[in-house]
Design brief:
The chain has 218 residues and is of the alpha/beta class. It has a single domain, classed as Rossmann fold (3-Layer(aba) Sandwich). It has helices spanning 2-45, 71-85, 106-116, 133-146, 158-170, 185-208, and strands spanning 55-58, 91-95, 124-127, 152-156, 175-179. The model has no long low-confidence stretch (mean pLDDT 89).
Amino acid sequence: MFADRDHRQMPKRNLLMKIVRILLVIGLVWLAVVLVLGVVVIVYGETDNASPSDTIIVLGSGLRRDNQPGPSLTRRSRHAASLYAQGMAETIICTGGLTAGRNRSEASGCAEVLMANGVPESAILLEERSRSTEENALFSHEIMRANGLTNAIIVSDGYHLLRAQWIFTQEGIPVVTSPAVTPPIMTLFISTAREILALHWQLVKTVLNLPFTYVPVM
């Protein structure tokens, strides 16, 4: 009796083991892809492709609790000021809207750093509506069209540039990328992990043609 029961359960056990093995292989392949993607994100972010362009676009980043530019926004804005001083472009578009708990936009924080580093106010354009990288691209494109600008240098932290280049290209903006100074190693590690997740989302969104331009964690 027990032998018959064990015999009947064998196909179920075999099927379960096959499923487990398949899931294990899928998990290992995904892990390998994630590791390779992490390397690509970091290597791409270390490459400066800046060349003379119509404008420089600084991608927004958070303000501190006192409404002053945070470390990331400061890095990005200072680098944009350096590119401007080198004659890479005649205008700079600062991007980034209001975030929770702040009473000024990320774009205004960027402008503050730019002017402190020698960029005249007349050369700065503000994009103060965006809440995501995709909205950075959408609303920056509107400003570019209104001002007769056709191509741009994207400035951000290096870990952000692979995804940013993808999004801006999808928006139809010819861009090159230029990384700000590399952040501390722990910030780089955490932010790269976040970028890998964001790239997964961007792939899903592109494949399924989802209309969302803003997800709070992206």
